[in-house]
Amino acid sequence: MADLDEVLAASRGLLGVVARSLTTALEHVTVPQFRLIVLVSTLGPTRAGDLADRLAVEPSTLTRNVDRLVAGGWVERRPGPSNRREVLVAATDQGRALVDEVSERRRRELAEVLERVPEADRAVVVAGMRALRTAMDEPLPEEVSAFGG
Q1: Burial classification of residue 98, based on how many CB atoms lie within 10 Å of its CB (0-12 exposed, 13-18 middle, 19 or more buried)
Q2: Which domain holds residue 7?
Q3: Residue ranges of the chain with pLDDT lower than 70?
Q4: Cα–Cα distance for residue pair 42/50, rounded to 1 Å
């Protein structure tokens, strides 16, 4: 139980980092909309159905969010390369810039936190985070070769 309490406390701290990094973005989009922009920024143009599956939302919910993001200039719809009836959702330059801004803010704050970890413990912390990331099926951007990573 003490192990779980440690992970829970650390997750609260990480949530604080995430929340602070999202402050500016949330003036423009909701958290689910931001997640959608992150996915298409990472995966590249992605079929709408695949995005709905990945985000665990109904296709109609995804369509409404995509409509709002298209209207705001954050994403665009494209026809599929081999089937023009297939709809792909892609991040615009504006959408990618928003993701980059949030990611950079988060990186800076996490770098500061990691600097406060005693040097002798840093490798253990990184290994633990890698194990958690892997257990949560969260790929690194470079590990994503196609939808689903």
Answers
A1: buried
A2: 2-142
A3: 141-149
A4: 14
